[in-house]
Amino acid sequence: MPVSRTCTFCGNDIEPGTGKMYVRRDGNVHFFCSGKCQKNQLKLGRIGRKVRWTRRYVRAARQQTPRPVAVQEAAVVEEPLAEDVAPEVEEVIVETAEGVAETPGNDRERVVGAFAEIPGIGPATARVLWEAGFTSITKLEEATEEQLTDVKGLGPASVKKVLAHLQGSSR
Predict the structure, then answer these.
(1) At residue 147, what are phi and psi to the nearest 5 degrees?
(2) Does residue 51 form part of some domain?
């Protein structure tokens, strides 16, 4: 009976009669489904769970995602907030791309992802915008053409695309 193997690098199943078997001098046996997997592991020294196109990467990413925790009801406080606390609370709440107010735990990733979806802005430029102080879609909408042109990676044509998109979506 043929034995089904899995690729040592990517984790895909190898059909019987296909693939490559590589035996190291120390006795370790590696099975590869393709030359691509063999080259990535042996010549390039890559790790399968860190390469996005592999099944092992998907499994590792799935295991690292936090599982939802049961939401507990917050106790209602009848006392009004002190005047000096209220502005701090308002600063903590940040508006995301969907217009939902959230606290800034993983806000950077969300806002940078929302920036990258705007025509004329790629992932690298989105990160540069965040570092330049544009920490929400609202701040980006309020920016002038000169402020956006000063950001590294945004030329005049890209700035016009961005502003046209933001003005069209805010209506």
Answers:
(1) -65, -40
(2) yes
